[in-house]
Every structure is written in structure tokens, then in C-alpha cells.
Amino acid sequence: MAIATVAARYAKSLLDLAQEKGLTETMYKDMQFFKKTLEGSRPLLLMLKNPIVRAEKKSAILNAVFASHVDSVTMSFFQIIAKKNREPIMDAIAEEFINQYDRLKGVERATVITTVPLTDALRKQFKAMVMKTTGTQLVELDEKIDSKLVGGYVLRVGDQQIDESIRSQLNDLRLKFLN
């Protein structure tokens, strides 16, 4: 079975449990914390994905790292995942949980990459573009800065990308001259 399918099933089960127990917001924050911790600690992520490390060792490390920072229900979920030998996909489960939570709340996430930090006016314009494209009312922008763009912006919403960067325009121009 594909990783995305398995992760989606586990995430849906966790979201259903969170709704049943009234812990949806808590679980959401826990999954965000878990995801950020894995993104910030490559050794932890590699340990979870390593088939040589035994499940008991992974479970003990998860307990040591997260037990004091997440809810007991979230920690129990981590232990179940460890017992089922699904630690290699825990990052995908957390990502899918966050996606399903966003769909539940009607939130659309977008990433905007620019050469300089966004002003409030530009932030509102990008949010308006996303609202117009997707039809949602709640938009969360993830703002990134990349000096290699030279100028302009790259906006990613779901699987769509709008590339209005000068780097992209220069590449298009170069290709036209080569052909």
C-alpha cells in the first residue's frame, strides 16, 4: 500500500479520535510541533526511518523527546504507531493530519517566495489571489525569502504554482534565444 494512503488512514483515525475526545486543537498543535521537530532534527527523522533500529528503541526515543511536550492521547498514538512498525511514515502521518485538519476548518495554505519580506499590503494581495483562486475564506501564507529569484514572486497553492519571478522570465528568454 502506498505511504500516502496509509498515512491518510492513520491521520483520519487520529482526527476522528481527536474530535470524539474534544482534543482537535490540542492534537493539531501536537502534530505541528512533531512536524517542526522532525524538520529541525534530521538525525531524529533518519532514526525513525531506519529499519535497523528496533521498534522498542524508537518508542523509547519518541517517549523521551515528546512525552513532556504533547498530550497523553497523542503520545499513546505515537506508541501505537511504534508497535505497528509504522515509525518510518510518522512524518507523513503528521503532514496528512495537518492537511485534513485544514480541510475540516476550511483553511487553504499557500507558500509565497519573494526576494524581500512581504509588507502588509502585499500579504493582503497574495491572500486575495489565493481566495479568488480557491474560493476559500481562510488563507494561511507561508512566507519564504529566496534571493536567487532576482525579483518577482513564486506562489504555490496546493499543486498549482504561479511563477512570476525574474529568474523564470530570464530563463524563458534564454530558451527563446537558443531555439
Describe the structure.
This protein is α+β, with helices and mostly antiparallel strands. It folds into 2 domains: 3-103, Peroxidase, domain 1; 107-178, no CATH class. Helices cover 63% and strands 14% of the residues. It contains 8 helices and 4 strands, in the order ααααααβαβββα. It has a 4-stranded mixed β-sheet. The longest helix has 19 residues, at 3-21. It is globular, with a radius of gyration of 20 Å. It starts with a helix and ends with a helix.
Secondary-structure blueprint:
Layout: H1 3-21, H2 24-40, H3 42-49, H4 55-66, H5 72-83, H6 90-105, E1 107-114, H7 120-134, E2 138-145, E3 153-157, E4 160-163, H8 166-178
Parallel strand pairs: 1-2
Antiparallel strand pairs: 1-3, 3-4
Q: CATH topology of the largest domain, what is it called? A: Peroxidase, domain 1
Identify the CATH homologous superfamily of the largest domain: N-terminal domain of the delta subunit of the F1F0-ATP synthase
The CATH architecture of the largest domain comes to Orthogonal Bundle
**Share in helix:** 55-70%
Write down the overall mean pLDDT.
89
How do the SSEs run, as a string of H and E? Answer: HHHHHHEHEEEH
Strand content: 5-15%
List keywords for this structure.
alpha+beta, Peroxidase, domain 1, 2 domains, four-stranded mixed beta sheet, 8 helices, 63% helix, 14% strand
Short structural description:
With 179 residues, the chain is α+β, with helices and mostly antiparallel strands.
